[in-house]
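#struct-help
A.M.: can someone run this one for me? Single chain, 506 residues.
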Amino acid sequence: MPSYEPVIGLEVHAEMLTQSKMFCGCAVVDSTSAAPNTVVCEVCAGMPGTLPVINERAVEFGLRVALALNCEVPGVNVFARKNYFYPDLPKGYQISQYELPLAVNGWLDIETTAGLKRIRVRRVHLEEDTGKLNHQEEGGGKSEEGSAPSSLLPPPSSLVDLNRAGVPLLEIVTEPDLCSVEEVRAYATALRSLLRYLGVNNGDMEKGVIRFEANISVRPVGSDELRSRTEVKNLNSFKAMERATVYEIERQSAVWESGGRVAQETMGWNDAEGVTVSQRGKEHAHDYRYFPEPDLPPLELDRAWIERIRAELPELPAARRDRFVQALGLTRYDADLLVVERAVAEYFEAACAVSDAGAAPKTVPPKAVANWITGELFRLMNAGGLTIDQVKVTPRALAGLISLISVGTINSNTAKIVFEEMFATGQDAGAIVAARGLAQVSDTAEIEALIDRVLSANPEQVKTFLGGKATVEQWFFGQVMKASQGRGNPQVIRGLLAEKLKALGG
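D.P.: on it. Structure tokens below:
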């Protein structure tokens, strides 16, 4: 049994999906693909004499998140200057919030194997993002024939791209309530899903639009003390976050176990080597010399505006999951899979809402729709690297396929073949079935003939069955299905096959 247990808090930095930056009119662009330093003005470049102006849309997006996280929203909050030197911070300070943030005292419930747990959110505040450093390899890369000798090539360097400088950034800070790697992942995935539902962040960790930083310490099992912690910065994938957290827990436990003390410092994660690396001593708030931003007045929030934003919040993942379970009869597992992405949940509901064209219209069973989405649709999406909005199969078309199965036009095996063509072409199931002659064979005379042919061709297997090996019946079933080219009605085949075998046994 381990001697030490982890105490973890997460800081999450999420870029807001606004059209313009936090304090100027420059457009927000993809900093991983746009030409460097093409959307920069005097304000976000930190030129002397320039004045910031607060982006109202960024404040609205921040309030959406704060309200969804059940936070208290004070009537007044203040922007401050957070002073520190870094090459991609052109002003030498970052406009952020500290003593009077946008929102405080919220929570987010997470699900783990141990059950439901509430993670407290200490604060939600707005700030501006920094620029970005592009690190150059020594000599500019691989030496080629005819190039300069390595001794004449320039040393390694870093170039500054200010396209990202000034992009609205929302920081969400938890209390140290996370006690395992499983809880860290559960919180991170739940928060990412929430941000995407609210339409404020696209959740693309690889592009750095959402960045996780873990504050990790360990203590003796059963203790309530808080020991010195390390902060692991800029984790850009869930896998990296998990690996870094596991490594740091093990490293700190070994330090304390050996009689040492863990230094409070900021760590980087070296993913290639699987280790954390010390970057600098962990700063305290006073190290940043916070003081109110003199060029921005206190931000007063109209209470009626806040309530309008609250009223416009969409149904959030946890509420939608519970509704899918209680109202639609889905398993908790299926519901969890379907609500991770808002677009997938909406696709599912749209398919469930499609009625057939019979005299007494009825919708397709939600469980059947869930099975097809979480099974075949997700499989093909993953194989093709597609998102739900890129899928050619409409919700109505999926419902049509399921209806063909329910009325016996095709069986489940044929349906998978049809679905693959639907996925590739966007055609409706009915058209594919008609064009390829895939309709299910239910004619008893035709199926009886197939059964007779299979039994006649396999006398040894018939003898084995009559000798008491009942499992051979399933082998016969497979042979009949094969003879029908997969189009035979399984129920009809099983019934007729059982009768034929019983008759052979006298």
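A.M.: thanks! Residues 141-150, 357-361 have pLDDT under 50 and may be disordered.
D.P.: also worth noting: The two ends are 65 Å apart (CA to CA).
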